Each structure stands twice: as C-alpha cells, then as structure tokens.
C-alpha cells in the first residue's frame, strides 16, 4: 500500500506523526497516523468519498480537523489517534467551514488558550455569517 502520494499537513501529537495524503489509485484524501513503526488510516469520516481533511490543531491531546461527513459537508472532527468523532453540526445540510456555495468563507481560525480552544465557522449558512466558537476542557 502506498500512502505517500501528495503528502501534506504534517502534525505531531505526542509520539505520533499525523498527515493528510491521497491513497494511490483511489484518489481519496484521508488523515493518517505514523507511530514510528506503521502507518494507519485515522479518518474515514465520509464513507466512500474523499474526506478532504484539513488539520486545525491540538487541544486536550486530541487532533482537531475538518472534513466531509457522509453527506459531503465539511464538519468539525477530532481524534485521539484511535477514535474519530464529529464534534458538532452547526448547519445541518450545509458546510460549517470554508465554502457554502454562494458563501466565500475564510480559512478557519483555530486557537488554544489555557483550558479552551476557539475556532471560527459558519454560524448561519443561509446568511454566510461566521462566528467564533469555544471548546472547553472537561
């Protein structure tokens, strides 16, 4: 298996190296993890289509990224390297990040300060309004 086709967005969390790559022959961009011994696919958020993940940053030992869900809309996800979960769905049936057709979104901001992480996303897909959201440590 070749994972090293169009590798980008390298990010380290603890002992692991995360990266986005296109699986050779399939054209599907996914998030992968290298633990020093082997490479494993971390994300399959969309099912059969390309996830097209974009790494945002690390908070509370979790890697945050946005990617396509099974309906093809960009949503916020997180992973601890073993499990991937969708953090929230701000606009059901629309993208939460970057572009909603007529909306020309900015690149999302992801910032960690103390016990909280902040990110920007579309708060209202119908009006193209962007807002700042907070994730708190539990």
How do the helices and strands line up, and which of them pair or pack?
Layout: E1 5-13, E2 16-23, E3 28-34, E4 39-41, E5 54-59, E6 62-68, E7 74-79, E8 84-88, E9 99-100, E10 103-104, E11 110-113, E12 116-124, E13 129-136
Antiparallel strand pairs: 1-2, 2-3, 3-4, 5-6, 6-7, 7-8, 9-10, 11-12, 12-13
SSE pattern, N- to C-terminal: EEEEEEEEEEEEE
What is the mean pLDDT? 82
**Shape call:** globular
Instruction: Kindly state the percentage of residues in helix.
Output: under 10%
Global Rg: 15 Å
Sheet with most strands: strand arrangement: 1-2-3-4
- Runs in which pLDDT lies below 50 for 5 or more consecutive residues are none
Number of helices: 0
Alpha carbon gap, first and last residue: 39 Å
Largest sheet: 4 strands, antiparallel
What would you call the structural class? mainly beta
> What share of residues are in beta strands?
over 45%
**How many strand elements?**
13
Structure description:
Strand 1 and strand 2 form a beta hairpin. This protein is globular. It starts with a strand and ends with a strand. It has strands at 5-13, 16-23, 28-34, 39-41, 54-59, 62-68, 74-79, 84-88, 99-100, 103-104, 110-113, 116-124, 129-136. The strands form 4 sheets. It has a 4-stranded antiparallel sheet, with no helix packed on it. The protein has a 4-stranded antiparallel sheet with strand order 5-6-7-8, with no helix packed on it. Strands 11-12-13 form a 3-stranded antiparallel sheet, with no helix packed on it. By secondary structure, it is an all-beta fold.
